[in-house]
Write a structure and sequence with these properties.
62% of the residues lie in helices and 4% in strands. By secondary structure, the protein is mostly helical.
């Protein structure tokens, strides 16, 4: 039996979606029209970039992957809705669409920021640059469309729904996304190697990412009843453990990166990698990476604290 979650206020309802199942009318409903907007905006974005080959390098590759991936999965969701194949879909339909919409909103947001700032601004004026700017605009439209879907389909007070539609479920998506951004900034091992305290911080990021990812996969696969302990207990323990681990990281990472007593660099000008001679337009110097990881660590700590608080307001029922 799948596990669903309800907030302990008001009365319960049975559905959070107004989409008609297995009918072409699904596309005329507000949610269906919103998904069409997502499909069109991501398709236009990657088509504009592909037509002028404006996606070389890691940042361009990430943007192209984001738009293609979001387009493909949105198309699959529309086909499932139109054909009424929800019951045959291998993943929990209560949890999958909103999980994807949340990830897609974050992916498109990152592409809408990273692509123009690290790639487009260095292009020469002309058709390539114009197409790249237009693609960025459509990426922003897609981001807003996916965020709107999350706002429309998230759990309301008193509603029986899948765990991923609740605030803690959406926070799990956010936590894993922030962890992935942290890993991107940690792509240079010299930032943390040979310092046990910093290696511990990297281990914290990895452990919490894996645990949050496992929670998402358990819900997408409707496998929460396979845990050896009750799922609510698992969630509470996971949130508490993550808060404690991140609390150590928020202290150790800045201390060992910016305090001169631990060979840190308190000012950007003291880091040789940040001088003009060492930097390329699209690179991020070590000091900036250290600062970014510190900020993201604090953001994720706040997310885990919120996760812990909101988890206490959930009531689990078997359906």
């Amino acid at each position: 039996m799948p596990v669903t979650v309800t907030r302990t206020t008001i009365t319960t309802t049975t559905s959070s979606s107004s989409t008609t199942v297995g009918s072409a009318r699904a596309l005329t409903q507000p949610l269906g029209l919103l998904r069409l907007l997502q499909l069109i905006s991501t398709c236009v974005a990657f088509s504009l970039v592909a037509s002028v080959n404006a996606w070389t390098g890691p940042m361009g590759n990430w943007a192209m992957f984001t738009w293609c991936f979001c387009f493909a999965v949105t198309l699959i969701i529309l086909i499932v809705e139109l054909g009424g194949f929800q019951a045959r879909f291998p993943l929990s339909w209560r949890n999958f669409p909103i999980t994807f919409a949340c990830y897609a909103a974050l992916f498109c947001l990152s592409s809408s920021i990273i692509y123009p700032t690290t790639y487009v601004q260095f292009l020469a004026h002309g058709r390539t640059r114009d197409n790249a700017i237009a693609a960025t605009t459509f990426s922003c439209v897609a981001c807003l469309a996916y965020a709107t879907e999350v706002a429309w389909t998230r759990a309301r007070p008193g509603e029986i729904t899948g765990y991923m539609a609740t605030v803690p479920g959406l926070l799990k998506v956010f936590e894993t996304f922030v962890a992935c951004v942290i890993f991107a900034f940690l792509s240079e091992p010299a930032l943390y190697q040979h310092k046990p305290a910093l290696e511990w911080c990297v281990a914290v990021y990895a452990i919490c990412f894996i645990l949050a990812g496992v929670t998402i996969l358990l819900n997408l696969g409707d496998c929460t009843n396979m845990l050896p302990i009750p799922f609510p207990t698992f969630l509470s323990g996971l949130a508490l453990l993550s808060v404690l681990l991140y609390a150590t990281a928020i202290v150790l990472w800045p201390l060992y990166q910016f305090d001169q007593r631990y060979q840190g660099h308190p000012r950007r000008s003291m880091d040789p990698s940040c001088t003009y001679n060492f930097m390329q337009p699209t690179t991020v110097c070590f000091w900036d990476r250290r600062l970014a990881v510190s900020i993201l660590t604090g953001i994720n700590l706040l997310a885990y604290v919120s996760d812990l608080v909101y988890s206490t307001r959930l009531v689990f029922v078997k359906v």
